[in-house]
Structure formats: structure tokens, C-alpha cells
Write a structure and sequence with these properties.
mainly alpha, 18 helices
Amino acid sequence: MQEIMLGSIGRDSKQPEYKWRFAINVLFGGGQWIVQLIVGLYMLGYVVSRLGQEQWGLVVLAMSISTYLSLIQAGASIGISKKLNESYTKGDVQTFRGYYTFAILLCIVLSAIVVIATAVIVTFFWSEVGIPDRYLQEGKLVLVALIASTVCSALSLPMIGCLQAIHRSDINSKIQAWSVILRAVSVIAVFELLAPSASAYAVVFLAASIFTLLWLYWWVYANMPAARITTHGLGQKQLFDLITINGATFFNTVNYVIFMQIPVLLYRENLAFVGLYGIGLQINSLVRGLFFSPFSALSSVMVSLKSTGDMEDIRGWFAIATKVYVAVAAMIWLWFVVLGPSVLRLWIPSGINVEMLAEALPYLVGVTAMGLISMPSSAVEVALGRLHITALTGVGLVVALIVALPALVPVDTENLVVSVSALVAIFFGLWQLIIMLRVGSALHYNTGHGVFCLVFLPCLSAVIAGMPLMIIQRAYHPNEALQLALLTGLAGLSFVAVFFLAGLSKAEREKSRVVVMEFLRRDRTGAG
């Protein structure tokens, strides 16, 4: 592989490179999306059917606890990537290595705090978690394995930051895709050859995380000689910069996690609810995770553009990205509302209350769709450093949700999943709207014009493309896997055609074409 060094990185030579890299990063991110979607959907149904609703609820509860503990590391990813990217774009090797060194030290310290916190909980407060007595010991093993997995993810952040700094998110996409495949194969092998259990699933999850961490470290060490720990030129300013940007992003990350996870802890004694809601969380993770690689690529471009002072180009990238994410989010929500119940009946095994889950889909997937819509705004927020107001606003809405949930939705509510999901959607949606309005204001968008061009037209193209899907579902009620797959493919092709022609302006279509043609030209010549 070609070695990647920092050096003379002028604006004129670098800008076309990261625009081309954006195309290839999105391409590989899409490949990772397909792998995670196919493997993830199959494995969720497989694992739930083999473990049963209660043991799956145990996994979901342990995941929720480990997620809260991992909040200690929250924000580190964004802060590390931003600072490494800025120093790389400016060609400052010494500063790059300083941030890289501090990033590794920061991740080690944060991971150590997580490990200590886990030991304290397991040793002194385990009885307060609320896990039934028959699952106490297995629950400890599940929690420890999942916590160790989050530690591996934290230790990989400096490597992922390096890849984003050189606009090579495609490498991370490849590694993550192979990790998903390895985890799926290993889970099936363990369940079929030994015995299915929540602890076995958690241990395999940890093994896959270790595999990912080692591969990332190897690639960066072998291909980026500039990414080396240094003891020279380290300054307090670099450490202070990392801490302050991480502090701002910490609250945004904490807010998102609490929005998603707080129902699990508030209603944790009802493992049947936790199991159903956990399936919704897995759907959210699958869909949102599939867009994370394109989001990372976009964030890298935004930070590089901000480093070169090109605000007009940021505005152009933001417009196209927002239209794409809005349209895709609308199409995903429409697909789940129209075909979701049929897919759930095929996907989720007997013994699970599928009908109750199907009723909650519009709200569960609505939360996912709103999170997708705001992703380009979040990328601009990071690049501009405008994180504090939305973080504090999110804290207020999170507190309001925590108060409102038990007050408005008693635990004995007839359809608890629907009621909880609807309330979460309301508060989470308000937060995402605030993020988008603040970024629109920073980029000097007229609110009415921005809503019409960036939101209404893309949503309209999704509705037009999805109309045949709705008509066929109402007229013929397809419920076989092949029929649903064909309908999904046809709806996807229709959506791409309608959105490209009606959702984008002529200038945006031309800009997209130029980026793709540059990618194809570079790919044929073997550049990059």
C-alpha cells in the first residue's frame, strides 16, 4: 500500500483530493451499509429466536448499562477527528503528532475510568440493577464483556481519527464490514455447536471488537508513518483543545444516548417491554449505523473546508447533503410504515408480540428518521464549533423527557411500547429541529426558503416515489419474502430517479456529476 505522509498540503492540491475521496468514502460506506443491513437484520431475528424474549431482554439491559458507562468516553471521537483533520489539512506535522499522542493518552485514561466504574457497579451495586435473581451471574458476564467491547471501540478512536484526517473512511468501512461478518459467523457457530446464551453472544461481540481494534492499529501503523507517538513539542494548548471540544461534544452524545436508552432503565423490571423496545433500538442502530460512514466522510470534508475558510463551499455541500438525507429518511420511514409490519411477521419468531411492535413502528422509525435528517447539520456544527447551545438545549429536553415518561405513561399502560416511543419521538424531534435551525441560521438560510428547498421538495420526491409501494400494498397485501424484496428494490430505483430529477437543482446535479466523474477518472488512473 502507498505510504501516506504529511507534508506540503496546499489548498489547491488538497481540495480536489478530499472531494474525490468523499465519493469513494460514500461508496464504501454504502457497501458497509448493505453488509450491516443484511447481516444485522438476519442476526437480530436469529439471536432473538434462539435466546427468547427474556434472555434477549437481558442483553438489551446490559447493552443499555454499558452504553451509559461508555458516556465517560463520549465526545472523544468528534474532538479527536476534528483536531487531527485540521492539523493535517494545514500540513502541520508536529501538531498532528501532538494531537495523536494526546488522543491515545486521553482514550486510555477514559477507558480506565470506565473499567473502574464497571468494577464498582458489579461489586457493590449489582443488586440495584434490577436483574432477576436467576440471571444475576450471567448478567455480570454479559455486562463485563460488553463494557470491554466499548473499551476496544474507545481505544480505536485515534486510528479512526487518522483515517478521517486523510479522508480514508473507506478503510474503516471495510474493516467494520468484515467485523460484522466475523461476528455473525461466530455467533451462529457458538450457538449451534455449543449452546445459545446471552453470555456467549456477549463474548463473541467482544472478540469481534478486539479484531476490529487490532486491524485498525495495524493499518494506520503500516501506512501512516506520520501517525506516531511523540514526546517532543507537546503543549498544554493541544491538550486543552482536545478537552474543550470533547466537553462540548460530550453533552450532545450524552443527550442522544439518553433519549434512546432512558425507557430501558425506567421500565427495566418489565423485561418483556425491554425486549420489544430493544428490537426497536436495534432497528435504529442498524439504520443509523449504515449512514455513519457517509456522515463521517461528510464531516471530514466540512472540517477541511472550514480549515481553508471556504464557507460558500460548506453551504453548497450542506444543501446537497441535507436534501439527500431528508429524502432518504422520508423513504425509509415510508417503507417501514407500509411494509414494516409484513417484514416483522416474517422476521421475528413466534413468542414475540410482533403486532404490538408493528403499532410502534411509525414512532420508533420516526425517531430514526429525524436523527438522519439532522446529520448534515451535525457535521456543520462540528466544523463550525457551534455545539454548546444545542447541547444545553438537549440537556433540558432530556430532563423533561425523564420527568414526563413515568408521569404520563404508567408501567401498566396497555401498549407501553407505542406510548413510550411516541413521547420519545416528540422530545427528540424538538431537539433535532433546534439543531437544524441553528445551523441554517449560521449559514444564512432564510427559514421559509430553507424549509421548502431542503425539506419539503425532498420529502415530496420520496412520497411520489413511494406511491406505487403504497398502492400495491393496499391492493395485493404481499407478505412473502421475495415479493417484499422485489417491491423494496423497485421502490428504491423509483426513489433514486425521482429524487435526482426533482429533488436536486440543476447546479446540484451538475456538482454531483462532477464529483462522480472525478472519482471514476481517478479510479481508472489508479490515483490515491
